[in-house]
Write a structure and sequence with these properties.
23% strand; alpha/beta; 3-stranded parallel sheet; 5-stranded mixed sheet; 10 helices; 282 residues
Amino acid sequence: MKKTGRILAVVLAVVLALGTFSGCSQKGTQKSSLETIKQNGKIRIGVFSDKPPFGYVDAQGKNQGFDVYIAKRFAKDLLGDENKVQFVLVEAASRVEYLQSDKVDLIMANFTVTDERKQKVDFANPYMKVALGVVSPDGSPITDVSQLKGKKLIVNKGTTAETYFTKNYPDIELLKYDQNTEAFQALKDGRGAALAHDNTLLFAWARETKGYTVGVTSLGDQDTIAPAVKKGDKELLDWVNNELTALGKEKFIHAAYDAALKPAYGDSVSPENVVIEGGKIQ
């Protein structure tokens, strides 16, 4: 019995040693996220398909918008060619899951930084400012949140608008939709009295859609929008932050504003109320 016990102990020790060696070997040969991106020759970036002027698919099937403009520059500086980006279409509620399940390397889908989201993903430095707004028909404008009592408010699932009204105004009935196109169509159909979303989006939508006004232009705290990576992906996070710093020196985010947002805003919005250069609010 003693001999058998000694044999089992030796076998167990060998198995543990092999397991430890194997684990160390695998850890030592595991590629970093940047190495994988460079080896694959592409970076997968999650963007919106239905949120103009930030992320949308045009009539030719090409990705366009403010977020897309910046994402292409990331690909150019990282891989030498802006076309080496693979755009992955996401919805607001799927952004975190797409990072956690390695479906994307980076999220550039107008992702507002919140404490809750920081627990699940790592945010880089910001490139944009944003607050909530409320848009409604000109014939029955909502100019104060108190006017929504007893009425239905349209929001998108997984957005800061949903979180804000659920927490602060639980008595307001929310109509929730996955896609922006569904939400805005619901407003046009009169299914809700108003729609709450990022004010930066609503300013552009109301400007091009006759009969609607952003009656509540700023609600809650001013937030920021930033790229996001998988939790713990420090290497890619550091690269993005260094990239934003470098781009700030040439005022690239202002150039992105002029190319993608100014056509939608005209002179109704000051770029300084939207743009963050160098990853830092001045």
